[in-house]
Specification:
- It is built from nine helices and four strands; from the N terminus they run αβααβααβααβαα.
- The chain is an alpha+beta fold.
- The model has no long low-confidence stretch (mean pLDDT about 95).
- About 40% of the residues lie in helices and about 15% in strands.
- Strands 2-3-1-4 form a four-stranded antiparallel beta sheet.
- The chain binds adenosine-5'-diphosphate (ADP).
- Adenosine-5'-diphosphate (ADP) binds near residues 77, 80, 129 and 138.
- Its cofactor is Mg(2+).
Length: about 170
């Protein structure tokens, strides 16, 4: 990144470029697929201006669900969570953008849909934590980890969106 001039002086007009381009793993959970919310959910990230780099419908095996949620292994709801995630196909997505991880979490809303703000995906479309329709990575590190976990390399695609110059100055 060219954040500094040759003599190391910080260049204020390049501040915007310092905001980190991040990858986030977004997944429509089985309830979202069953309820016909796939288009609606994809549309929210698409409209926001993130770039889609991976997309597939997928029946998740138990082992993958357990690996994905390994940090929650000790929770009492873990077996239920694994049953839920493997109960039908999910839609796996990789999205990229400046600040994409935190921004996607805001678009998704609180884990408990009853506490999620109206306007968020969970706030608008769900009523229970155990059926909260969508997943989004909680850190840039987990974004990378989860995309690597759910996608094979050939399934991801880098491309330039024609709208790019109209999204960021
Ligand atoms: P988030 O998905 O918002 O990052 P967590 O990482 O805390 O939330 O939990 C992962 C998922 O586990 C939640 O989205 C939800 O599907 C499920 N979950 C979390 N807490 C509970 C709970 N108390 N009862 C049932 N399921 C839960």
């Amino acid at each position: 990144h060219a954040r500094r001039s040759a003599n190391g002086i910080f260049l204020p007009h390049l501040v915007a470029s310092m905001e980190q381009v991040e990858e986030t793993y977004i997944m429509v959970k089985p309830d979202g697929v069953q309820r016909g919310l796939v288009g609606e959910i994809i549309s929210r990230f698409e409209k926001k201006g993130f770039r889609l780099t991976g997309l597939k419908l997928f029946q998740c095996p138990k082992e993958l669900a357990e690996e994905h949620y390994k940090d929650l292994k000790t929770k009492s709801f873990f077996p239920k969570l694994i049953n839920y995630i493997t109960s039908g196909p999910v839609v796996c997505m990789a999205w990229e953008g400046v600040g994409a991880v935190a921004s996607a979490r805001k678009l998704i809303g609180s884990t408990n849909p009853l506490q999620a703000e109206p306007g968020t995906i969970r706030g608008d479309l769900a009523v229970q934590t155990g059926r909260n329709v969508v997943h989004g990575s909680d850190s840039p590190e987990n974004g990378k980890r989860e995309i690597a976990l759910w996608f094979k390399e050939g399934e991801l695609c880098q491309w330039t969106a024609v709208q790019a110059p109209w999204l960021r100055e």
